[in-house]
């Protein structure tokens, strides 16, 4: 009986190891690899013979990846066939933990005695260069070569709580939170100056819109996606307009004369309600804007 117990314990342990090993399916290293997309979103994909593919739900070991070359990446695939959640990569005693949020790579922590600052470059029809600082992507550059447009670049830079994208294809500059929500987007002119911009809060609601019309620079302020205030300058005067339900309520005009600021308040119809300067104020009945 005692001998039987000594025989059973190793068998149980061996079966346990086999069960754990069978939890992951090892993919053919010559066919499959883990791929970080060459787009600003940094989505994690499984590539089969050069083409993005979707696997059945389960756990897999991918033996090729762009991060550490030939190595074992332990991934989980959800019911939609996408890489789901954080995963680890192991190679020759080195171990990396890749953090994934909403299907997008956020950072990679490499546990090794070597320096954590590194970069890798992909050269294909386009050229992608990513710089890592302490395991996090700090900056990436994507350069596209096309005969009709020449050399175009997308530059993505990461900060503690957001990242920016400068896109030469549509002449824009954008700012995103780490949850990939758009916070700011600007249109740029040929020399990189902002010609129009929009700012949003974390819920995606418009907060501020700057633009130029008839050579006048406007700033529109919003609350709950509704226009509440407009600021601009024209002919040496400062204008401030107030709105409710998208309708003009009143306008305040400030003019500088003889070192003093004159202030005019008009209603929506352009009737002067109040006029003031450095010496005092008085009610008016003018229709001058």
The major pleated sheet works out as: 16 strands, antiparallel
Average pLDDT across residues?
79
With strands numbered from the N-terminus, the spatial order across the biggest sheet is 10-11-12-13-14-15-16-17-18-19-20-21-22-23-24-25
Return the structural class: mainly beta
Quaternary structure type? single chain
- Sequence stretches where pLDDT stays below 50 over 5 or more residues: 1-22
Outline? elongated
- Specify the helix fraction band: under 10%
Number of distinct beta strands: 25
Span of the ends, CA to CA: 105 Å
Q: Which range does the strand content fall in?
A: over 45%
What is the radius of gyration?
Answer: 30 Å
Count of discrete alpha- or pi-helical segments spanning 4 or more residues: 1
Compressed to H and E, one letter per element, the order equals HEEEEEEEEEEEEEEEEEEEEEEEEE
């Amino acid at each position: 009986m005692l001998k039987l117990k000594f025989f059973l314990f190793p068998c149980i342990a061996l079966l346990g190891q086999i069960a754990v090993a069978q939890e992951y399916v090892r993919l053919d290293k010559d066919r499959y690899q883990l791929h970080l997309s060459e787009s600003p979103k940094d989505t994690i994909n499984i590539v089969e013979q050069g083409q993005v593919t979707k696997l059945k739900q389960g756990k897999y070991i991918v033996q090729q990846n762009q991060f550490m070359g030939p190595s074992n990446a332990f991934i989980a695939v959800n019911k939609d066939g996408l890489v789901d959640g954080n995963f680890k990569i192991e190679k020759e005693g080195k171990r990396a933990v890749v953090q994934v949020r909403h299907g997008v790579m956020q950072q990679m922590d490499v546990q090794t005695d070597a320096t954590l600052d590194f970069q890798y470059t992909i050269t294909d029809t386009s050229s992608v260069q990513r710089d890592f600082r302490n395991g996090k992507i700090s900056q990436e550059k994507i350069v596209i070569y096309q005969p009709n447009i020449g050399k175009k670049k997308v530059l993505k830079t990461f900060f503690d709580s957001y990242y920016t994208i400068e896109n030469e294809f549509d002449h824009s500059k954008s700012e995103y939170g780490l949850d990939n929500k758009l916070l700011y987007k600007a249109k740029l002119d040929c020399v990189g100056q902002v010609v129009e911009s929009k700012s949003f809060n974390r819920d995606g609601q418009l907060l501020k819109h700057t633009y130029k019309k008839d050579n006048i620079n406007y700033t529109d302020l919003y609350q709950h996606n509704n226009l509440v205030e407009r600021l601009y300058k024209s002919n040496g005067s400062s204008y401030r307009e107030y709105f409710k339900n998208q309708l003009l309520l009143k306008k305040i005009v400030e003019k500088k004369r003889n070192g003093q600021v004159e202030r005019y308040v008009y209603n929506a119809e352009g009737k002067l309600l109040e006029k003031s300067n450095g010496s005092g104020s008085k009610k008016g009945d003018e229709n001058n804007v």
